[in-house]
Hints:
Blueprint: H1 2-8, E1 9-12, E2 26-27, H2 38-48, E3 52-55, H3 62-67, H4 69-90, E4 93-99, H5 122-137, E5 141-146, E6 148-150, H6 153-156, H7 160-167, E7 172-176, E8 180-181, E9 183-185, H8 186-198, E10 203-210, H9 215-226, E11 231-235, E12 249-250, E13 259-262, H10 263-276
Parallel strand pairs: 1-2, 1-3, 3-4, 4-5, 5-10, 6-9, 7-11, 8-12, 10-13
Bound molecules: NADP nicotinamide-adenine-dinucleotide phosphate.
Residues 12-13, 15-19, 30, 33-36, 56-60, 75, 79, 97, 99, 127, 146, 149, 159 line the site of NADP nicotinamide-adenine-dinucleotide phosphate.
Amino acid sequence: xxxxxxxxxxxxxxxxxxxxxxxxxxxxxxxxxxxxxxxxxxxxxxxxxxxxxxxxxxxxxxxxxxxxxxxxxxxxxxxxxxxxxxxxxxxxxxxxxxxxxxxxxxxxxxxxxxxxxxxxxxxxxxxxxxxxxxxxxxxxxxxxxxxxxxxxxxxxxxxxxxxxxxxxxxxxxxxxxxxxxxxxxxxxxxxxxxxxxxxxxxxxxxxxxxxxxxxxxxxxxxxxxxxxxxxxxxxxxxxxxxxxxxxxxxxxxxxxxxxxxxxxxxxxxxxxxxxxxx
Length: 278
Ligand SMILES: NC(=O)c1ccc[n+]([C@@H]2O[C@H](COP(=O)([O-])OP(=O)(O)OC[C@H]3O[C@@H](n4cnc5c(N)ncnc54)[C@H](OP(=O)(O)O)[C@@H]3O)[C@@H](O)[C@H]2O)c1
């Protein structure tokens, strides 16, 4: 099966946080394939003739997307349109990784695959437009929505979990306690996606580690895993002046086989396996 996946799957944006766990397929970085360039997408797909495109390439810095929406839509929306169009031309399936940020949090309860998206920042909107392109252009697609993502270890992790781990060396840190979400460990996500590709899964799936938490809960869990003596102080989100607005409820559940092991277990494995052993 390993050999089969290697020759038939092409991976875009393959050396980021999620891509670092992908051990199959033809892995291309931005220099080998810029998804914003439709001619390049066409010619690369012609050359490799993949049966499946695992589309990871994206601008994932939510605040950068807010500051530079043109760039966000060019990468996340137009880039995904280009990938879907070329995939259709050569008869390939697209597996597109989307995000809980397509929802605005107003529901106040966990979002399911059949809830209608309504993003409230440019990152969420640009990813949702990517979803619409995939759904409209292709018959054979899988959209996998991930929650707050962590993974990649010290080399690839630039997101909130890495920031908390680094800050836990200080005497005290502040962590937001008024916004809640589902976590997705990128390593668990990739093994889930591998199974989905092998089983030719279609449609929309929410893929997250079970349970929900605030950034404050996450900090407490990391403190436990690292044995840090740092004091963790809960604060409101207004304490950090971020460019993009965030919803109060980024919690997802799945009706479609996307749930993975509890977030505490996944986070513990990540911190102990990829940070402490460095
Ligand atoms: N990270 C999260 O919190 C999160 C949460 C939910 C869903 N997702 C989704 O999961 C997928 C994978 O994200 P990730 O966490 O692995 O993010 P990441 O670490 O930021 O990796 C994304 C990769 O895409 C590449 N890229 C950016 N623009 C490109 C372009 N025009 N053409 C080709 N490659 C390009 C980046 O390359 P450069 O290094 O050259 O910029 C980077 O290597 C994305 O679709 C993302 O939207 C992420």
